[in-house]
Amino acid sequence: MIWAKEETLSREELEELQLKKLQKIVKRVYDNVPYYHKKYRELNIFPEDIQQLEDIQKLPLTTKDDLREAYPFKIFAVDQKKIIEIHSSSGTSGKPVISGYTKKDLDLWSEVVARGLTMVGIDENDVIQNTHGYGLFTGGFGIHYGSQKIGATVIPISTGQSRRQIEILKDLKTTVFIFTPSYGIYLGELAKEEGIDLKNINLKAIGFGAEMWTEEMRNKIEKTFHAPAYNIYGLTELIGPGVAMECKAQNGLHVSEDIFYPEIIDSKTEEVLGENKEGELVITNLEREGMAIIRFRTKDISSITHEPCFCGRTTARISKIKGRTDDMIKVKGVSIFPSQVEKALLKVNNIEPNYQIIVRRPKLMDEVEIKVEASKELFFDEIKEMIRVKRMIKDYIENETGLIFKVSIVEPKNLPRSDGKAKRVIDERNLC
Ligand code: DLL
After folding, report:
1. Measured from the CB, is residue 180 less than 6 Å from ligand 1?
2. How many Å lie between the centroid of ligand 1 and the Cα of residue 138?
3. Does residue 411 fall inside a structural domain?
4. Fewest Cβ atoms closer than 10 Å to its Cβ: which of 121, 284, 387, 398?
């Protein structure tokens, strides 16, 4: 079954619809969002300049930093009283990106997730166990709204309570399991430990995403749970999960193109690239009411194809995310930037500004360590002082990122020096 007629429009029909929506939304942000109004005025761009779809390229790109600058509500396109829900990308302090939803936006969100769930044969007969966190993270609520829209039974168990997850999987006869790939692998191991025979449970599909993964990980998940696993893509700034989702073909993710306009650009020259060319994914919200983001640089590396898909949908597909153009990493599902760690380190005396972040997955769960060089004084100081400094680093970083780091203080001048861009992050997980 195909959920919405917009998923099967001809390219001409779709482009006509996209153009209408684009013209409308550009006018709306120009009139209602001081950030866009100022930016477009500076560049001498007016809503009337959008006469055909390609004219989108006249509009400047929007970055995460632009949104941070607009923190907290300056990017909203409606009066704040129309916003009925808020989510946020990451970071427990500092300046995270705030995403605001009107009632209409929540309907839109449930619509795109409903389309994706339907793509893989999920319907009102299904029992969906949603292990994504319910909170500021968009994973929990986004999947929840979409599941309810199609009339499925949703179990909002959220993340954690891992043994209980397995019990519920079995007892409530879950048919669809939603998790991040790393959490799914962990749950599979746990089930094995508990002696649960995963062959004889009711699972028919798995939905996974929110972080980078390899085909080996997908194979392992599918073998462990004896069910096909489908990729879900999304990001807080645009809406959350549901921007693009995989159909049964498992060959790229269908973008709800009447709602999100995708482009691929060369991240250096910002030039728009053609079909099947790999580059940075840029997405425009064509419909969002509360927070309409135009040409958002996702920093995710992908490509777009319009080739017909065996499922019958005519919407473009993006390829699985291959990596990022910036230094953002996701650890245990949380997005962090070295700059957040740097900010925390600046608050601590007696250390040098040289550090390295190392991410590992020794068994199944991510671990993150920071190595920081001690100052000469600290190095010759008492052990008590060393412990105090370590504690401070750990606390400040946790405060900034929400993650607990293992802290190692090393001798002065012990970390590698570079003559170019310092390599701050060493990701030993090999995720792409
Ligand atoms: O991760 C939304 C989401 C929730 C997607 C649940 C899928 C399932 P953020 O926390 O804002 O939102 O992180 C967005 O995560 O720019 C990508 O770098 C990465 N990401 C999301 N989905 C995938 C995926 C949610 N399927 C950032 N594959 C994005 C690889 C992904 N990376």
Report:
1. no
2. 9
3. yes
4. 387
Which residue's CA lies nearest to atom 14 of ligand 1?
235
E strand residue ranges, 137-278: 153-155, 176-179, 205-209, 229-235, 240-246, 253-255, 260-265
Q: Is residue 278 part of a domain?
A: no
> How far apart (Å, rounded) are the C-alpha atoms in residues 290 and 103?
9
What is the CB neighbour count within 10 angstroms for residue 73? 14
Indicate the number of domains in the chain.
Answer: 1
Residue 95: Cβ-neighbour burial (10 angstroms; 0-12, 13-18, 19+): middle
Angstrom distance (rounded) from CA 157 to CA 318: 30
Q: What is the pTM of this model?
A: 0.90
For ligand 1, mutation pick of 88, 90, 300, 427 (most atoms within 8 Å of CB) = 300
Give the residue among 369, 355, 367, 371 at the shortest CA–CA distance from 331: 367
CB 369 within 8 A of CB 408: yes
CATH number at residue 370: 3.30.300.30
Contact yes or no for 241/208 (Cβ under 8 A): no
Residue 329: CB atoms within 10 Å: 22
Tell me how far CA of residue 32 lies from CA of 25, 28, 36, 103, in angstroms: 10, 6, 8, 18
Q: Is residue 188 part of a domain?
A: no
Decide if 353 is inside a domain.
yes
Which domain covers residue 394, as residue numbers? 329-427
Q: 322-367: per-residue pLDDT in tens? A: 888 988 889 988 888 888 888 899 899 888 878 899 999 988 789 9
